[in-house]
Kinesin-like protein (Physeter macrocephalus), 791 residues
Amino acid sequence: MGTRKKVHAFVRVKPTDDFAHEMIKYGDDNKTIDIHLKKDTRRGVVNNQQTDWSFKLDGVLHDASQDLVYETVAKDVVSQALNGYNGTIMCYGQTGAGKTYTMMGATENYKHRGILPRALQQVFKMIEECPTQAITVRVSYLEIYNESLFDLLSTLPYVGSLVTPMTIVESPQGVFIKGLSVHLTSQEEDAFSLLFEGETNRIIASHTMNKNSSRSHCIFTIYVEAHSRTLSDEKYITSKINLVDLAGSERLGKSGSEGRVLKEATYINKSLSFLEQAIIALGDQKRDHIPFRQCKLTHALKDSLGGNCNMVLVTNIYGEATQLEETLSSLRFASRMKLVTTEPAINEKYDAERMVKNLEKELALLKQELAIHDSLANRTLVNYDPMDEIQIAEINSQVRRYLEGTLDEIDIINLRQIQEVFNQFRVVLSQQEQEVESTLRRKYTLIDKNDFAAISAVQKAGLVDVDGHLVGEPDGQGFGLGVAPFSTRPGKKSKSKKMFKEQLSSLARKEGASSPASGKDLDASTSKTQLTPSSKDGDVKDMLLQDQETSSIEPLASESPQQELCPPRPSTPPAKPVAFEDFKNERGSEINRIFKENKSILNERRKRASETTQRINAIKREIDMTKEALNFQKSLREKQGKGEYEKKGLMIIDEEEFLLILKLKDLKKQYRTEYQDLQDLRAEIQYCQHLVDQCRHRLLTEFDIWYNESFFVPEDLQAALKPGGSIRPGMMPLSRIVSLGEDDQDRFSRLQQTMLPEGPDSVSFYNAKVKTEQKHNYLKTMMGLQQTHRK
């Protein structure tokens, strides 16, 4: 943590024509202000009324310009913020004393701007002077109105509306406002726009002492984060500057507030009273508890009041005799604030990503240095990388041969090998334990000493006596040792043996079901973990090494294609037919391919339509011939006298005429089918023709753009037309691209910067002011139009 330092307190006196020279006097050091009151003769002869006060402060600003105020009060705090120190500048005083003018100034005049705009300018100017650091700036604007929190920048279109109200949250990193929007600003003009946007949303009211009285406390915060452009530096610093414009305290008898303004004044005086209580508690070294949570104002400023922060207070007072009581109250607050101490410290943090990269780089350098030491000590075969499967198998083989006695010692190369050797000893020991247990389970039934049920069953079978000694029993290869039971007789079969075998078999089944390592499972696990004999280990290792060498010898494919060199531009543009052929083979190849495909489909549909038309014509001719044949048959039938039967409703036709009728019917059916196919083909042809026309138009348009940009646009503008450039091909006409020099707007901006009375530094201030006014005028106009339409 940093060293403790006291809060700096300054007094700014509001200029007035009716200044009380007899009552207010300044010291020669310009740091002392003396107040003298005449005794009230109405109190009689015995009058112990105090008449003289003297206040020692860090500076008295009387008839001081805005430039002098900023240089004296805020410049050091802002400059230290870019070094990682938090800062807070607070304006305090009675209503109408000039707090908002000191903090914000007059936005209509650049020279009369206050502490807040000047602080923004200083931050961005210092960023330009620090090319070795990447500094980001963010801002937020909080309003505390009637003990409620409001975001003054919530009216911006990209700020979403909050469902839940904002709250003050404490964390190990400090106090922050949950739900308050924080905005990134990359340039000075953007910061001014946010400032003016918030100012237009502030709540103000009018009373007898101030026509534009602020009815809320406002905290404008500048967040600074500075990263070093050197990749090896993982540390970065963060800081914040709180610029606090407090609402003024007021005597209700003098201000004459009523209604809503009276309610606002009550909340303002209450919060300022809690602020003074917190300041008194901070100044008392014997106090353990500081009442920060009494109101939203003190809670939000907990870090600034006596915390990790450079604190500066500007007390605004009147110089008139009628306001002397309020002036004394404000000066008492300033003197109490000077007793408060803070403990500013640099806020350093570490970039985790950069830290990992630096550690990886350091690890690579240490490996290189270790390789150099190994080469100087003739240890060229040392490898410090993690071991692969082949090396682990080799160490396992060495450990097994060492345990078998075929290897006298294991050569130690590095620490990784030592750790792996001990690990392989553990692996071999575990495998041997499993092998021994598996062998015992194949020959014997193992019983747990704590399994009393199994022990009692064995005792009943006669295998173990009461004292726990084993009873001898032949196992097929010899005789077991033990004490024979009393019931056993030579040459006779014992019933107990038969019972024991049955119980033993059931016990074995029970134990085999309960033990996961018994029976076949144990054998399988043993066979899986068992290694091959040592004679085969060398062959396996050689095969793996051979595969590894073979894979390492394979050539690697080139990952990055060679960059194509752009041909030089010819001195004179080529003929358009020649250039068109080049365009179709290069840049317009895809469009040309689509055009050809669509055209081939169109030709194929036209060919099918032609064939269908020919078939329809042939069917039509055949229908006509069939109709003529039918008419001939009909006339022949009438000549034969068969027409009289038709008059009676009887139809007499011969077989030939009947076949002609059936043929005509089939021909008409074919005609209708072919005609429907022809209609479908004509619709497809129309659609394909539309696609071909579109492709042709696109191909010609792209060719014109390519031809103009390739042979007429200056070479210094070609970079902007490349893929990823700022200008998309065809987005601007050729005449506009060629004349991309300084236009009227650029010339006007240059003249504006050079001809403004305050100099180029005021451009961003005025631009932000004009944009904010235009925006709000537009919103007012639209609201007026909507109301007119509603009426």
